[in-house]
Amino acid sequence: MSKLWEKEYSLDKLIEEYTVGDDPQLDARLVNADCVASIAHATMLERIGILSAKELKGLRRELVEIIRRNDAGDFTIRVDEEDCHTAIENHLVQRLGEAGKKIHTGRSRNDQIIAALRLHARSALLSIQRSCLDLVGTLKGFAARHANVPMPGRTHMQIAMPSSVGLWAGAFAEELLDDLSLLEGAYDLNNLSPLGSAASYGVPLPLDRELVAELLGFRAVQNNVLYVNNSRGKFESVILDAAEQVMLSLSKLAQDVILFSMPEFRYFTLPQELCGGSSIMPQKRNPGMLELMRAKAAAVGAAGVQIKGIIRSLPSGYNRDFQETKGPFLRSLSVVLASLRVADRVMRSLEVNEQALLAGFLPEIYATDRALELVASGVPFRDAYRQVAAGLKSLEGMDPHEAIRRKTHTGTTGNLKLELIEQRLVEHARKAAAQAGEVDRRVRELIGTEAAL
């Protein structure tokens, strides 16, 4: 046996290579998730009398062994097997005979792959959330340490108004907290059990879909069996839409650090161990990781568009087109996680050069503040505006530290309210920890240990 759909003929080799694509390589990431889902499915089959207790015990043992081998890099998927689902079932049939032939009862590769993708995505989203929380904590700490360090504020890339390093870092912390809310929404949407939908139309067997959902820690069953298959690609695109927001935040952070660490600014300094060099220019220390972060943000956004483009005009039910959504989805999840970790490393080691920041406070940066001082003394704003514009030289000698201390309304340089970030951070961390704990508990109950899904 090599293919789940094995017939009395052999598939043309060119067609086989074209249709299989890079599934064997991609599916190495899904082996553990498929095995965990298969244990839950087999447990349900035993409950409804399709499998014996002895058969379930053997299947569970072999599926756990596949997880162990996969973690050790010792489980392979051949091209003629097409995907991890076939490779796993072939192993079970080889080791257990009839029991291995029974495990596919009541399911299709359609709901099997959707289940594996959702379990993998659930685990990946939890890792992304944890790394996002780590970065928010790092940015909050950075903002607190440099809350009183003046920084030129800019609009149109030109000198605008007095700002601070604390305000700059706190802005990214709050932005990522909003991104976390989107990730949590995507997590909840993804956390529905597709098993039991089979090839979009269910099966004439008394499958207990609720039991499988409970065993796998899904929050509920995705009810309509046709919608289960129709939602493939759609759920993945929703996840990538949320992930793209994270990458957009990271891209802006990367651009700022690149810009403000240039010799012409020197507001920040990147440690040399984070920077690559040039093959021809001996002096170069390049922020290549931040440049790639900008590019990878575009790639994640493009992956979401690619997936939506693939599913946009598909009719209901399963279509082979769905296969092409797997690669951009899985690769993007890895990119987002890696990017968050790199950004955290950068912000933990970024040096602030206060003297260079102070040197950026040219007299005109105080223009708006001075106009508003005149307003406070009774001058109409438009008159104050013109008066200050006509006498910018009179602004020399003003104090940057005093300028940022004087703004005290909510969210300004003199009143960052970093405690609000901390409150939201604790709330998001508590939710993520509870979700991760539930996932780990369910996996341990199924296989006796934790598994990287």
Can you describe this structure?
Helices cover 62% and strands 5% of the residues. It has 18 helices and six strands. A two-stranded antiparallel ribbon has the order 1-2. A two-stranded parallel ribbon has the order 3-4. It has a two-stranded antiparallel sheet with strand order 5-6. With 453 residues, the chain is mainly α. The model has no long low-confidence stretch (mean pLDDT 94). The two termini are 27 Å apart. It folds into three domains: 93 residues, Orthogonal Bundle (Fumarase C, Chain B, domain 1), CATH 1.10.275; 209 residues, Fumarase C, Chain A, domain 2; 43 residues. The radius of gyration is 28 Å and the shape is elongated.
Helices and strands, with pairings:
Elements: H1 13-20, H2 23-26, H3 31-47, H4 53-71, H5 84-96, H6 98-102, H7 109-145, E1 150-155, E2 158-164, H8 165-190, E3 192-193, H9 209-216, E4 220-221, H10 225-230, H11 234-260, E5 268-269, H12 288-311, H13 323-349, E6 351-352, H14 354-359, H15 367-376, H16 381-389, H17 400-405, H18 418-447
Parallel strand pairs: 3-4
Antiparallel strand pairs: 1-2, 5-6
